[in-house]
Structure formats: structure tokens, C-alpha cells
Design brief:
The chain is an alpha+beta fold. It is about 20% helix and about 30% strand. The protein has a four-stranded antiparallel sheet, with no helix packed on it. The chain has a four-stranded antiparallel sheet with strand order 4-3-7-8, with no helix packed on it. The chain is elongated, with a radius of gyration of 23 Å. It starts with a helix and ends in an 11-residue tail after the last strand. The relative contact order is 0.22.
Length: about 140
């Protein structure tokens, strides 16, 4: 085997081994985190005109994901309607819109970097539709 071919073969083998090792390490650490974050407790959930929803929760913790990297998804009657935003000292909250007037079961789930979703408690929030308003626009 020529020197050029030997170097090329060794380089390809090294890249393959490194790629396999890195991929294996990444999936092993992601697979190791199977515990969801803590369950968010409601600080506030209220419905207003034009199906507007204001919802907020205190931050939760996780066994692996840093607290500032946990995401919070909001569900209304089982449908994902958006995410809470970190408002600094004001906590995690958002102004979203319900999909229907009347009573809605609103839940907030914390999601860690591995995709584990917390359990959630439902809060019943009444969506109000005001004639002449356009839901989704404040």
C-alpha cells in the first residue's frame, strides 16, 4: 500500500471512530435522562375578552437540565397553544389565546432538554368572546 493511501485510510478510520464515539456519547447521555422536571404550580391563569389567556407559573427544577433551559408549554383542552416566556423577576408567563369560548382546561408542562414532559395540573379558565373582536389580536 502506498504511503498516501495508508495516510488516507488511517484518516478515514480515525474520523469514523471519532464520529462513532461522539455520537454514542451524546445519545448515551440523552438516553440517561428519563426523569421529567417538576410539576409547575399555577401562579396565575385567567381568561379575558377576545379569548385572551394570561398564564404564569414559578420556575421548576430538573435533575439534569439547568433551570434556565427548561421550557414551558401551555395546553388548552389538550391542544398546545404556545409557550411561556422567562420574564426575569416576574417569572414564567405569557399572553396567549384560547381556541374556544367557555370553560377550558388549561395545563402547563415543563419540558427538559431530553424532551421529558412533566405532569401538569389543570386550571379551568373561561374564555370570553367579545362581539367585534378578532381572536389572536390584542
Amino acid at each position: 500500500m502506498s504511503r498516501h493511501r495508508l495516510v488516507r485510510t488511517a484518516t478515514v478510520a480515525a474520523i469514523t471512530a471519532l464520529t462513532t464515539a461522539l455520537a454514542g456519547g451524546a445519545s448515551a447521555s440523552a438516553a440517561a435522562d428519563t426523569t421529567p422536571p417538576g410539576t409547575p404550580l399555577y401562579g396565575y391563569a385567567g381568561g379575558f375578552q377576545c379569548l385572551m389567556l394570561i398564564v404564569g407559573v414559578p420556575k421548576v427544577t430538573d435533575d439534569v437540565t439547568p433551570q434556565d433551559q427548561i421550557r414551558y408549554r401551555v395546553l388548552a383542552n389538550g391542544v398546545d397553544i404556545g409557550a411561556l416566556e422567562d420574564k426575569g423577576s416576574s417569572g414564567m408567563w405569557a399572553i396567549l389565546h384560547l381556541l374556544q369560548p367557555g370553560p377550558n382546561a388549561v395545563r402547563v408542562q415543563a419540558v427538559d432538554l431530553a424532551g421529558n414532559r412533566s405532569t401538569s395540573r389543570a386550571a379551568t379558565v373561561t374564555g370570553y368572546y367579545t362581539p367585534g373582536c378578532t381572536p389572536g389580536h390584542l
